[in-house]
Amino acid sequence: MTSPASPARQRSLFCQCNKAVCECWPSTSAAASAPMARSHSRVPSQPSVIPVATQQAHYSPAQQLPTPHTTATSYGSPSTGSHHSPNMAVSPSLTVPGHPSPSSSASRSPQMNPLQLHPLLKAQSILRTPDSPSALRLQWDVRDSANESVIISSHEPEYLFSHPMCAAYATTPPSPFLLIACNEGGLPWLVPVHAQKGSAGVTVRDVLEAIYDVWHTSVEKNMLDLLPTDDARDRVYQAYKGRIERTRAYQQGLMAVDWLGEKTLFVCLERDEALARKRVKEEAMWPYVFALKLKMRRGALVSDA
Questions:
Q1: What predicted TM-score, i.e. pTM, was given to this entire model?
Q2: What is the rounded CA–CA span in Å between residue 151 and residue 139?
Q3: What angle do CA 197, 200, 202 make, to 5 degrees?
Q4: Among candidates 217, 238, 232, which has minimal Cα distance to 47?
Q5: Is the pLDDT of residue 19 over 80?
Q6: Which of 9, 53, 81, 164 is buried most, with the most CB atoms less than 10 Å from its CB?
Q7: What segment(s) does the record annotate as region Disordered (predicted)?
Q8: 3-class DSSP assignment, residue 134
Q9: Measured between alpha carbons, how far is 235 from 175 in angstroms, rounded to an integer?
Q10: pLDDT tens by residue, 143-181
């Protein structure tokens, strides 16, 4: 059994400064000694103890990013052996308080080899054309394992991991590394995605598994204090309670997915240049940053068609 991640390590999931002593949020000791400006009395029926998750955070200390290289030019599937979970080695060291000034950024914006997402990962189009993502759509609640994602088409729904597109490259040209950013839940999240050993690029499966792994990272209860209101904290607790009742995993503690509340349905990945400039200091990495878009659940995971 692994020990839970320390508060400092958990804080690295969200902080913008990446310093040994985080300067973005009050330290645990400072928060404990400072007078509380808000009351927690309105949070209904929270348990006095939320079990501490035994899963350790997937982020590890900062490591140097690889330099992306692209050589192929299609969505073809990589010819690799057995599949393993994505390497979650990159930490939120990519989040920095400062970023290039507008003048320098505008004049030096990377334009080489713009990546195009696989249609399954793109925003859904209202046009029903052969090339439209609406003709073949990904349906997934990120609370569930990536194995439970479904492809919706004009035929019977099919589990993605049983479909050939599961192993298709996530981008064209293939890229060995992607960084997915998401600001849902009131905190900045980062999802690093690495290609499997021997593969020329990240696959659709790699992307989904990386997203799932990060959302199911354990988070300590004191991270609730980073949220600005009692209502926001209550939404996290209600999501936690619903997840525990749904999965019967009564010994699990808070996880990052609880911060999403009811907004857990996958919509798409999309390019967000402003977000890339804000979150990533390495300019050469900006073309590899995509934003994760989610939407609210409507009682059940059903087709929107």
A1: 0.66
A2: 6
A3: 80
A4: 238
A5: no
A6: 53
A7: 57-113
A8: helix
A9: 37
A10: 999 999 999 887 788 898 888 889 999 999 999 999 999
